């Protein structure tokens, strides 16, 4: 994971190139495309291979939110997913234990997704809630399973206020609170001001050695310096489902961001399941397959539901029964 604590022009230029590359609109180097397709084929084209490899195992789906279930938009508060996606997610959750793993706070991502039957791992996995039966969104708090960084809450709130103040002079800059993490958005800031904005963030964070900065898609993310990330959250959910040391599980993790690479790495080290990167352009990744955008993610999930519906009735009963046992009261 890249940090932004170095000094000097070279470091700043690297940061700006990397920030630009985090949300590109087209492949810079078309020569890379054939190799990329060879090593990271489409999960839709390889669907039969993926489900064949899952045979006899419990599929558990893990889904990032921004850029995976919803399109990337300029205003983070308007990153809505489609009704079609919501319906497909509902179907997916009927057949497989399903978790949303996001940099957003649980409350925010729940407000977008609005499905009580899912696990939610918000704040980059630092806040994990289990499924609830209640339809009231306030009841999502009943399902708290794990909070890795509660002691950092006062510090995060303090830094949020300072960052809002320090960055307000930069046009287009926005600081978002995600409970245990913060996001400083660059998307609406003129590129010529990116280095200055990053420097402001760095100066504030210099005073808080217990926090670290990582980079996402035109965003700097501030989070506690603890060894916890989306990969650890994936492990935690699998463990709470009873698949700690089991070979009978096939996790499918779909995500588009650098932070999702931690989860892809965990899958490869467990030698289990598949990681699917959502990207239209070649990127260095630990995922095995790719999907182009949220509409392809929806198609893939839909095919998974259809495939499960066609497979044996007895298996389906096992899955639903297993899921019920895990639902919190
Ligand atoms: O882990 P995720 O669910 O992918 O969350 C990561 C960040 O997503 C959001 O920012 C990104 O999407 C915004 C809306 O499309 C976009 O404007 C921004 O440029 C992207 O970085 C969210 O606002 C952040 O707080 C999350 O950390």
TrEMBL record:
Keywords: Hydrolase, Stress response. Pathway: Glycan biosynthesis; trehalose biosynthesis. Its EC number is 3.1.3.12. Its cofactor is a divalent metal cation. GO terms for molecular function: trehalose-phosphatase activity. One of its GO terms (biological process) is trehalose biosynthetic process. It catalyses: alpha,alpha-trehalose 6-phosphate + H2O = alpha,alpha-trehalose + phosphate. The keyword Hydrolase applies. InterPro entries: HAD-like_sf, HAD-SF_hydro_IIB, HAD_sf, OTSB-like, Trehalose_PPase. The keyword Heme does not apply. It is an enzyme of class 3 (hydrolase). Pfam families: Trehalose_PPase. PANTHER family: TREHALOSE 6-PHOSPHATE PHOSPHATASE, TREHALOSE-PHOSPHATE PHOSPHATASE C-RELATED. Removes the phosphate from trehalose 6-phosphate to produce free trehalose. Trehalose accumulation in plant may improve abiotic stress tolerance. Belongs to the trehalose phosphatase family. This is Trehalose 6-phosphate phosphatase. It comes from Lupinus angustifolius.
């Amino acid at each position: 994971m890249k940090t932004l604590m170095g000094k000097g022009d070279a470091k700043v230029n690297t940061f700006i190139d990397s920030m630009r590359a985090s949300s590109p609109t087209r492949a810079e180097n078309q020569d890379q495309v054939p190799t990329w397709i060879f090593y990271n084929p489409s999960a839709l084209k390889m669907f039969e291979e993926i489900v064949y490899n899952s045979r006899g195992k419990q599929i558990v789906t893990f889904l990032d939110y921004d850029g995976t279930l919803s399109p990337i938009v300029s205003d983070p508060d308007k990153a809505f997913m489609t009704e079609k996606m919501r319906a497909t997610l509902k179907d997916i959750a009927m057949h497989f234990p399903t978790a949303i793993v996001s940099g957003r706070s649980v409350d925010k991502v729940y407000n977008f997704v609005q499905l009580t039957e899912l696990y939610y791992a918000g704040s980059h996995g630092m806040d994990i809630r289990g499924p609830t039966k209640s339809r009231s969104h306030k009841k999502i708090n009943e399902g708290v399973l794990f909070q890795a960084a509660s002691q950092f809450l006062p510090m995060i709130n303090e830094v949020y206020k300072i960052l809002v103040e320090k960055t307000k002079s930069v046009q287009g800059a926005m600081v978002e609170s995600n409970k245990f993490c913060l996001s400083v958005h660059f998307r609406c800031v003129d590129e010529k001001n990116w280095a200055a904005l990053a420097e402001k963030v760095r100066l504030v964070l210099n005073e808080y050695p217990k926090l670290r900065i990582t980079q996402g898609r035109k965003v700097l993310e501030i989070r506690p310096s603890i060894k916890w990330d989306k990969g650890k959250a994936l492990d935690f959910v699998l463990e709470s489902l009873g698949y700690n040391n089991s070979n009978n599980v096939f996790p499918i993790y779909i995500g588009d961001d650098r932070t999702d690479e931690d989860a892809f790495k965990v899958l490869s080290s467990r030698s289990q399941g598949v990681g699917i990167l959502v990207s239209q352009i070649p990127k260095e990744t630990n995922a095995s397959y790719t999907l182009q955008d949220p509409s392809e993610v929806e198609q893939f999930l839909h095919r998974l539901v259809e495939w499960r519906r066609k497979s044996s009735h007895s298996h389906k009963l096992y899955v639903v029964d297993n899921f019920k046992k895990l639902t919190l009261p």
